[in-house]
Structures are given as C-alpha cells and as structure tokens.
Amino acid sequence: MTEQQLMALLPFMVLAAASIVIILLIAFRQGHTVIQVTGFLLMCLVIFAMWYVRGVLPQTIAPLLIVDGFGALFTGLIVFCVLVVGLFSYIYFEEREENPREYYILIFLSTLGAAILTISRHFMSFFIGLELLSISLYALIAYLRTRNNAIEAGIKYLVLAALTSAFLLFGMALIYMETGSMDFAVIAQRLNAAGKSSALFLTGFGVMMVAVGFKLALVPFHLWAADVYQGAPSPVASFIATVSKVGVFAVFLRFCQELHLQNNSAVMMLISAVAILSMISGNILALRQQNLKRLLAYSSIAHFGYLLVAFLPGNNTGVEAAVFYLTAYAITILAAFGIIILLSPGEKDADSLSMYRGLFWDKPFMAIVLTVALLSLAGIPLTAGFIGKFYVLTAGVEQRAWLPVIVLVITSVIGLYYYLRIISTIFADSPVTIQKERSLNQFFYTASYAALVVLTLLLFGIGVMPAVIIQGIKQFLVIDR
Amino acid sequence: MILIWMIIILLAGGILCWLLSKSNSPAIKWIALLAVLIDLVLLLNIWLQHGQGLTANTGNWMIQYQSAWIPSFGISFHVAMDGLSLILVMLTFFLGTLAVLCSWKEIEKRAGFYYFNLLWTLAGITGVFVALDLFLFYFFWEVMLVPMYLLILIWGDKNRRYAAYKFFIFTQAGGLLMLISILALYFIHGAQSGTYTYDYLSLLGTRIDPSVAKWIMMGFMIAFVIKLPMVPFHNWLPDAHSEAPTAGSLILAGLLLKTGAYGIIRFVLPLFQQYAADIAWWAMLFGVIGVIYGAMMAFAQTDLKRLIAYTSVSHMGFVLTGIFAFREIAMQGVIMQIITHGISTGALFVLAGMIKERLHTRDISQMGGLWSYMPAMGGAAMLFTMASLGLPALGNFIAEFLILLGTFQANPTFTVLASTGLVFSALYSLRLMQKVFLGPPNAPHKVNDISGREFIILAALSISIVLLGLFPQAVLDVAGKVISNKLYVIR
Amino acid sequence: MPIQYYIAFAATLFCIGVVGVLTRRNAIIVFMCIELMLNAVNLLLVAFSKMHHAAALAGGGKNVTTGVEGQLFVFFIMVVAAAEVSVGLAIIVMMYRNVHSVDVNFLNRLKN
After folding, report:
1. Residues on B contacting A at a C-beta cutoff of 8 Å
2. Would the pLDDT of A415 be above 70?
3. Helices B304-323 and B412-436, axial angle in degrees (round to 10)
C-alpha cells in the first residue's frame, strides 16, 4: 500500500477512530455533553480530512476499495447526515431513560459501515460494510430497551436483515461461480467476454436484489419499514432513512454502473417493475396513515421508487439525478425528523398526527420547517425536492422510460394528498395538544434550532439556486478512476 | 430588470407583512396595499412608455430580461413582456389592489400571514404572465399554487379543507403532465439543434414528429384546460371559489383562470400550430358545452358564490371556443373576454363577499329585497349582472360579440349553440338580481349600505367595465400586435 | 465429485433455512435457521473456490492463487455471523425480559 493510498483512506480511518475515541471517553467516565461535542468535532474532522486528501483522489486500493469522486460525494453526504443526526440526538436522549453514551459508539460504527459501502468495489467490502452498518443498527433500533416498541422493531429488523444478508451472500456466491471473481471490474470483464448474460448470473443478481431492496425498503421487501420507523428512536429512524439508504444505494449504483447492467434488458425490467411497484404501493399505503413516522416510512418507499427511475438510464444524467435527489431527500427528511425529535415529549415520540393540530399558531417556526419539508417531499417549487424530482424526470424522459415516468407523475399526485393532509393539520384552527415545557440544556436546544434553520435554508437554497450543487456534483463525478 | 423588481416587490412586501404579523398592527394592510400599488404604477409607466411604439425595436417584446439560472440544464431566468402580458399583468395588479382593499375588514385574525399569501400568489401569477422560459413558467405556475392553497385552507369557509385539497391536486396533476411535455420538448429540440434549452423563443422552431407532437401538446392542454376550466375538468372550481375568502375568489376568478387561457395562447398555439388546428373542432365543442353547461348549472344554484363560480365556467367556455376558432377577430374577443370576465366576475364575487359580511350567509333563499337597504350596492350589482349577461355598452358584450363573430366564420353550428348560452346567462343573471336584491325584504336585521372603502372598490370596477365597453380599442391596440401575428390565425 | 452435488446440497440447506425462518415462531430457532443459511453459502463458496482453482490448474498455471478469495470470504462471513449472533441474542434476551417469551408472534403491537 502506497502512501497516497493511505492518505486517501484517511477520512475513513478518522471515522473508525471516532468510535474508539468515544469508547475511551466512556472508559474515563466523561459525560454526555463531552461525548456529544467530541463526536461532533470528530465528524467535522472527517469532513476536513476529506477536503485535505482531495488532491490524491482517485485511488484504488486493490482489491477491496476505491476512493474516487463518487465515493467522496456519497461519503460527504453520509457524514453530513450523521452530523445533523448526532446533534439532534443530544436533545432526544438527554431526556430518555437510557444511558445515551454508548449510542454514539454505535452510530459512528454504523456510519463507518455506510462509508465503506460507498467506496467498495468488491463483494467482500460490500458485505463487510453492509454488516457493519446493520449490526450496529440492530442495537440502535432496540436502544431504548425497556420499551416494547423498540424491542419489537429491533427484532423485526434483526431477523429480516440477517435473512436478506444470507440472500445477498447466496447471490454473490452464484455470481462468483459464474465469473470466478468478486471484483466488480473483473466480473464486468468476464461478463463482457462471455457476451450474453447467463441465467446463473441473472439469478444471482435477482437474489442480491432481495438484500438491496430490503435495505432501501423497496416493494416487495418494504414490510419492515413502517414498523421500524415507528418503533425506533426518532434519531435512529432518521439515520436509517438517510445514512443507511445512501450507503446501500451508493454501492448498488456502483455495482450496476461497473457491470453496465443498464444495457441488460432483463435487469432493467426487474428494476423498473420494482420502481413502479414501490411508487404505487408506497404512496397508497401512506394515504390513510395517522402516524407521522409511519407515514414518512411509506413515503420513503415511494421516494426510493422515484430514485430508481433516475437509476434506470445509467448515464451521467441518471447518476447526477440520483445523487442530487438523495441529497435533497436527505436534507428534507432530516428537517422533518428534526421537528419530530424536538417536539417529542420524554415518554414517547411525537408521531401521532393529532399532536400537530394547529402547530402553526403555536410554534410557527417549527411548523414552517415541517411544512417546507413536506412540500419538498411533495416536490413543490422553491424547495430542493422539486429540483430533485425535476432532475429525475429529466433523466427518465431522456431515456424514454415512459411507463415509469407516467407512474411517477400519477403517484406523486396521489402522494400530494397525504402531504397536504399533514399541512392542513398543521394549519388547522384548533388548540395545540403538544404541551412541552423545556427545561433542557439550552445550548443544545439552540444548536438543534440552528441546525433546523440551516436545513431549511438549504432546502430553499437548493430549490432556488440548484446550479451550485449541480456543478459540485458534476465536478466530483469527474474524479473517476 | 423592471419586471423582476415588480415580482421582488411583491415577494418582499409579503415577507414584511409576515414579519410584522406578531404586532398585528394596521401597518400590515398598508404595506400590502403599497406593494401592489407601486407595481401598478410601475406598470402604468411601462404602458405609457411602450404602449404606442409596440412595433418598435425588439419585435413584439417591449421589455426583456435574461440571465443564466441553471446553465447545466439550459435554464435561464428569461422574462419578457409583450402586449398580451402587459394587459394581463395590468389586470393582475388592478385586481390585486382591489383584493387587498376588500380584505381590509374581512381579515382580522392572522392578517400578516394572510397578506403574505396574497402577495405571493400575485407574485406567482405575475411570474406566469411574464416568464419566457418554460422551466421558469412551470416554476411560477406551481409557486402561485401553495399560497393560494393556504388562503383557501386557513381563511376559507366551512368546507375549506376539501376545497383546498381539490384545488391543489387538480392543478398539480395537470402541472406535472405539462412538466413531462416540457421535458419531452426540451429533448426533442436538443436532439434536433444540439443546444439544450428551455427558452421559449428557441423552442418555437422545433419540428416534432406528428405522432409524438399530439401527446406532448395534450400534456400542455390538460394543464391549461384544468385551470381554464374546460367542462369535464371544472370540478374543482365551484368548491374552491365558493369556499375561498372574498379576495381569494376574486383572484381565482379574475386571475388564476386566465393563466389557463394565457397558457393556451402563449404556448399551445405557437408551439403546436398544426396539431392545435387538428383538435380545434373538439376544443370548440367542449367550449360550447362549457358555455351551456355552466349557464345551466348557474341557474340551478342556491349558493350565491357557487352561482357566480358556474358563470365563470360558462364565460371561459367562450374563451376556449374563441381561441380555437383561429380567427383574428375571435382572438380579439378572447382578449377582451379575459379582461372583462376578470372584472365583472371579480366584482360579483366582491359583492357576494360584502353581502356575506353583512348577512353571514351565501344562501340566496335567505336574501331578498336588499335593494331597499342598500341601494348603492344594488346599483353596482345591477351593473355587473348586466355586464355578465352581455348588455351592450359594457365590456363583456364586445368580447362575446367578437368571439361569436369570429366563431361563426369557423363553425356556424357551434356559434348558434354558444349563442343560446347568452340566453341562459340572461336567465341566471336576472334570477340572481331578483332573488337577492328585489322582492320582499327578507333580511334579518337592518344592514348598512356600502362604506367608503367598498365604494372605491366598486367604483374602480364599474368605471373600468364601462370604459372597456366604450373604448375596447385601447385594449385591442396593445394586444393587437400579438394577436395579428400569423401564429394564431391559421386558416 | 461434480460441482452440482455441492450446489444441490447447499441449496437444500439454504431452503431449509428459509422455510425455518418463515415458519418458526421461536426467535432463537429463527436465528439458528439464519445461521444455517449462512453456512450453506459458506459451503457453496468453498466449493466454487475449489472449482475455480482446479480450473486454473487445469488451464496450465502452476502455483496459481485463483479462487482464493472464495475461501477468504468464508472467514469474513464466519466472523460477521458471530458478531450478528452476539447482538441478536442480546436483543432476544431483552425481549425475554420485557414480555417473558421469545415467541415472535408476541411482536405485533406496532400498528395504528
């Protein structure tokens, strides 16, 4: 391993060191505040390290990893999400019964897993990253261990994730048999040499899709999503919605790009079908939801259906669209969960829709943030979600994928209904039921507020001036091999 | 640049109103009024400067402003104003001023946020009328939606939630179809010319494969006829109009419906000339159905605002028929109709709002004999119902007459059918007057006649409708250059 | 032995595992079934590794390392499976403390 390769891995080593540092801090009996602040600074350090090593990219660390612009982009997004989630976690766990300190170890380990996914170019790193991500997530979901909901969500996630990992491995084994390699690039080579794709490869890919579909909560592997979102602590739910999905999507995208699966009509049929089903059922399931967290879970199913439409073309526009969409989606969902976290009283989460009646007249700021987030999810102009949806549609229309595009349009009109339902609840003319008196750490409360302001400004900023972000994404994607 | 300033003034005024909402001071109303008035003055200034020399330098465009926005997509911030835009923006600011004025007393609670939404809606509408970049157009098309939704949702009547949903979802469904069409057009043009752009002027010359063109055009058409509204898609309109607060109804009827007509004239006809001619017969048919259906439904209503809402359906049927007659004279009628309908129906909604403020009901059967209490309002109502039924010397008469004249050359049968719509309109107008203002007094208590503020609103509307009836040439001169453009007149 | 035997055997084990996960209600047995699936995959990987290695040798190479990654992968899977079990059992213990049962059918409270 050369010095440059080591340099390129610096951000990931810092990320790995972060959890060790937290363990040491706990060993020396430091308080929640110290850990929180250290964690925040470490994440900033990761971002700084990424900026610091930008010159040596791209680097291939054979055979497992490749640190290129693509990976850096997704890793940056992941670390950004973790920064925000970590900040919100303080307020949330400070008033819960559980000791919050080990939480940070798990969350950083999980982040490391997601980050490794973004730079993996080999089945082994794919698997290790995925398991690092999920094993920490099992514990995170069940973190509030005296609550039945959390345990239930944890077990559901545990069983299903382990089951789908086994499927993933089975698929990998089949592809390994066919091609004799686990390296994405070599697999692509062998497949090209063979000319047409064999049935064995397609079976293997299909079986792998089970695991990917599960992690991204795509239909028909979406059944866990609503339960886990509802049962998990809110910061963990926002983590699953952003970090875990970004990581898995990154590796899936890299795998398909590398193998040029977009030219494979059978695979594309499969993915379009999954996309269409996800868009339809996600939106329809969300229609009658009265629980905000469950609703966000269903809407995330639909959103990853939209994302797959951008994934279909497999050209640069598609990748850019996917990255942009994920960025916009992550910011939006963090803003929405931020509100849920800040409004949650100690004993349960503020996830019932009835708790939001008339929020606008009581807490206008929070109501505006939530409204903007919902409008962004619905894809209304002035918000980042609109540009994201526009980008996805552009990619779809360019590819003439008419059926998915039409389904996208129709289902997003259906989706509009439940977003509007929440908005009209927020603006409803009635007394507020959330009575929450804050006697908490004023500093972190203000910090969370500030984070929400930043997120909202980002939503508007990207919605009005997307050119900056688009340019940035393009520049990153050029750094390639 | 001045066009952008007009939009910015509205947006900034809205934000300022909102920021002041905590204090709930009367200054909020004045800020809102001032913002709209400044825009009105700016626009009058443009009219005086450019009004005469429309044919002058930059072709049809009096003012243009263009700057890059999202260069990687070929999206630019391109706004421009020609005669058509000028007239519609003028209507926007005129009705916008009145909307602020008629909310003066009606909106007491949460005034800051109310005026924020009002001004942002106006800003969105202004943007729609001046945008020359298809992406920008779509952007404004959607921007005007959210504040309007909130206006209905928060300050509307009893059934406001339902009405607000319906309004939003209908428009959004059409809008997304339009977005797909815009994207398809963008890629077809890009593949042909090598430059990918959303600029209207560049896209004008695109040659499209006929089989595809039909579908692309339908995407645009559906968005616009939902807004217009054309009959099978009119369902959202009566609910939204009747549930919205007075200013909301005024803006909906006076301006939002016009964005649909504007879209057809500005985009569908020039971009898809040949294919538009192909569907002309159907479009005229649906227009005529709208005329008759709207009038009949209006006759059957007992809710005052619903009744007026259905008259809009009827009047916009004329617009659709006129546009697709492809005659210059009919198009002149359409422009007139757009304006006079905005004023006369807007005025009727204002009157309905005033009556509701006094009687707390919209039910016609609970009214009657109001003339004896409020002769001044009765007089105004008489004027506008007469305008609505198309009495000569008032603006609507000119408009409908020109449309029918133009349509007759294109299709006599439809013209005859549409004319029966005029008979129905006489029926519902007279019924309206009789039930509300004439007959035995039925008011529960004595009500006051119009106040000074209301007098100003009604006077402004009355004067303009009479002036339009007497001097329609002023409007036709401004818009004339656009209309006589051969793009709109095919056969 | 032909490779098909290994595939058939591993596939059978895998299917038994899947059926077990889907039908059993005891969380610990469900977990064991997942382990069974992972081991089926391990078996497959070792078999394929050997197969590719043999093919490379037959192709004329001496001292080739082809196919070694299949066996390497097996070690990773074993390590990860151990980690998964440790966390998984901890959660199951927690469940037992809360509801005094490890029956997964008790877990149905998350709904509206």
Report:
1. 68-73, 110, 135, 138-139, 142-143, 145-146, 149-150, 153-154, 161, 164-165, 168-169, 172-173, 176-177, 179-180, 183-184, 186-187
2. yes
3. 160
